[in-house]
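ok so I'm stuck.
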Amino acid sequence: MHPDTNLVIQLQSLDQRIAALDKEVAALPKHVAAIEKTLDSHVSKLEADRAALAANQKERKKTEGDIQVHDQKISKLKDQMLGAKTNEQYKAFQNEIDFAAREIRKAEDRILELMSESEPLDINVKQAEASLKQEKQAVEAEKARARERTSTDQAGLNQLRAEHAAAAQKLPPATLATYARIRKKWNGSVIADATPGRCSACHIVVRPQYMQDLKKGENMMQCENCQRFIYYNRPVPHEDVAQVR
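replied:
not stuck anymore, here's the structure
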């Protein structure tokens, strides 16, 4: 195996770990934004229910006031009826009284409707207020966890990038440039094991002569098909394995 092989494998591993942490760091603000958006939608729903309940109560209060006005009007008209001098005057007062009475009945029916509408609104508001209190606490706790995770990830990224820079400096510039081209082409997959006689990445069989050159380990070699770096992992003799055990 060529001496630079382990460095390339190390770089690939570091790049993959860096990419994973970068992805997580980028995802955390989106996650926080999503839970905040959900919370905002629940807050908006609560505000809408509160507004509807307030409007209901306002209309109910106004309608109750209208009933009082009509009651007073009827009382006044009845007093005026006592002084009616003709049948026409008496009928006119009676018609006004009947009209006011009908308005009172309409107002009373409307109050019943408003009471029916306000009951579920009142329940929704109380339930939403209780659940929102818990949800806000959960969101704040999740945001704190996200901030902590981001801080940990950033520290990890700094460490990995330092290790990456150190490993990259040990590679020849030409090998490093080839590494970068392969990584870009294959989305981070740079080096493959060809010990079984085929590239483990693209699964194309390595030519016998090319395989012999690979086994010598004199040069960094690339798969003739996918252009990834390939290496031959020389099997450990059975006797050596036994000694290790």
